[in-house]
Amino acid sequence: MQTISNGTRIFVASIGNPPPNALTFHSAGHILSCALVSLLAYPPFLRSTSPTGLMTTGTEYTLYQSPALMNVSGKPVVAAYRTFVKDLSPEERPRAKLLVLHDDLESPLGNIKLKVGGSAKGHNGIKDIIKALGGANFMRIGVGIGRPKSRESRDVANFVLRKMTIEEITRVQNGAEKVLIILKNIR
User: Which of 50, 108, 126, 163 has most Cβ atoms within 10 angstroms of its Cβ?
Assistant: First the structure.
């Protein structure tokens, strides 16, 4: 269980696609969460059966990777978050927070942007979490992946499912330090 000086309990869930699409732009949230685990010196992610997914817990945060395809990640993320909250003490539950790491098509590669509540802005994974949660009252951090010149849905789909280069992966991973600063400032 994580302990933060102000009593806030943060469940950091990343969404993306499982293999063979694990190193695509669509999985930038998972890549960022792996970098965060390394930066925090947490134990590696381990497969969890209840809730289903990959999970690791350190002294400050619980990190979770959804096993579902990006666009249908709402149910597993919400189930994992609800299990996390249920396992907290009654005094801690009101201070529990959900933060979702995801790819952001509208930001330059590696850019980190915090958003609290509001619309999904067309992001199908976030839309599915909003639907499963019954509202948009959660935090999210988008990691920029850039955007193809064309806005045609087929071109966008091909772009987000393209394997990232080592340089692109590194730029996404480098966002972990900024994410950690954001996490430390959540109240």
Answer: 126
In this prediction, residue 6 carries a pLDDT of: 60
Write the secondary structure of the chain as one string of H (helix), E (strand) and C (coil): CCCCCCCCEEEEEECCCCCCCCCEHHHHHHHHHHHHHHHHCCCCCEEEECCEEEEEECCCEEEEECCCCHHHCHHHHHHHHHHHHHCCCCCCHHHEEEEEEEEECCCCCCCEEEEECCCCCCCHHHHHHHHHHCCCCCEEEEEECCCCCCCCHHHHHHHHCCECCHHHHHHHHCCHHHHHHHHHCCC
**pLDDT > 90: percent of the chain:** 82
Stated pTM of the model: 0.94
Active-site pick, 26, 30, 102, 123? 26
